[in-house]
Design goal:
This protein has about 450 residues and is of the alpha/beta class. The chain has two domains: about 1-55 and about 370-420, Urease, subunit C, domain 1 (Roll), CATH 2.30.40; about 60-360, TIM Barrel (Alpha-Beta Barrel). The chain is about 40% helix and about 20% strand. The protein has helices at about 75-90, 95-110, 125-130, 150-165, 185-200, 210-220, 225-230, 240-250, 250-255, 265-275, 285-290, 295-300, 320-335, 345-360, 395-400, 430-445, and strands at about 1-10, 15-25, 30-35, 45, 50-55, 55-60, 115-120, 135-140, 170-180, 205, 260, 280, 305-310, 375-380, 410, 415-420, 420. The strands form three sheets. Strands 1, 2, 3, 4, 5, 14, 15, 16 and 17 form a nine-stranded mixed β-sheet that branches. A four-stranded parallel β-sheet has the order 6-7-8-9. Strand 16 and strand 17 form a beta hairpin. Helix 4 runs parallel beside helix 5 (about 185-200) and helix 14 (about 345-360) crosses helix 15 (about 395-400). It binds zinc ion (ZN). Zinc ion binds near residues 60, 62, 119, 206 and 260.
Amino acid sequence: MRVYHARWVVPVVAPPIEHAAVAVNEAGRIAYVGSAAGAPTGERVDLGDAALLPGLVNAHTHLELTAMRGFLEELDFVTWIRTLTRARGEVLDDARLLDAARLGVAEGLAAGITTFADTSASGTPMRALVEAGARGIVYQEVFGPAPEQREASMAGLREAVARLRALATPLVRVGVSPHAVFTVHEDLLVDACAFAMREGLPVAMHVSESRQETEFLREASGPFADGLRARGIEVVRRAHSPVHLLVELGVAAVARPLLIHGVTFDASDVHFVAEYGCPVAHCPASNAKLGHGAAPLVELLDAGAVVGLGSDSVASNNRMDILDEARQAVLVQRARTGRHDALDATRALELATLGGARALGLADRVGSLAVGKDADLAAFALDEPRGIAAGDVVATLVYSIAGRRATLVTVAGRELVRDGRVLDADPELPGRVAATTDALRTWAAAQR
Ligand SMILES: [Zn+2]
């Protein structure tokens, strides 16, 4: 038995406990959460003036794009996504994607993230997560906007999923992600979801991220429609919104996909999301940076939707820090609604932990500190200038500690970060990813 003592323990499902401890048994499960005085004896680890909380859950990322940090600045969304797709195809081979994913996992761990919900075209994040000992779901992406791509895309998906399944562990599982309504024909969308259901795999999809996406579906116009027509692909007016389409196709009811973004949800979308129990990955920083806007998070929560927080890729966010996404979520919702009580720090921290775990179907194992759950833990030091605060510890974590490195991280009881250092880090890795960023810069210069 290992017993972590800290000034504060934040169970999330109960108020913070001062001078407290969390005990972890040999099976990597939580055996005790409570006062230091009542803690069991065992190997004592004193974290000192720190807050110990459940490991943070990143409900949406693209680990394989970690080398694209800073590569696509100040672009409109359509140019952003087209440049990303071309550069990925021309510059990033599997070895580079894998290294990028490894660096992304290390960055996330250093920020206290223990669970990563990754959507990936290459599948390389699966290996990166397994190697690191982190927890996650790797949703294999599938693309194919033309009807005649249906069979080839499905064959590719089945093959990729089989490859990833061979790597799966009790901590890292496989999912399926039809990318988005403007990159996946609706017949392929239905096939991919039916396949996922047959195989017992979770589904995630980018939904209602941009105005252009709504325009594509509702009016059959705009840059995504123009782009497909230029490739000889027919585009017809199809539905009021991506959520309405998922409802019409039966996908919302059966596959209950994780809906990534939801920036342009209207009241009817929010109603359907809650009605069908589709979880949402809310990505406030990415949505703001790309100029998409702010998702109606308050309305989703009021309707009873399950919501987790995602960073999205560092190509649109530049950092992977879920405590900081919690901070952004509060700031953006208060700015959007003009209400100081739109969202508070306690609720935001819950979204960053238990909300994400629920969104990914992992809440029976992680997301809060409770006896019997897996010991996915993150600790943040409070004995630094930003930690000296007169308010409660949750407000301190969300409003001021956000952005700092975790001092301790465990996944299923195994220490992956200790004393602020990612253990077993490959010292050559940052240099290799930096070489990839150089290659991207060279590629971009050649496009001019
Ligand atoms: Zn994304």
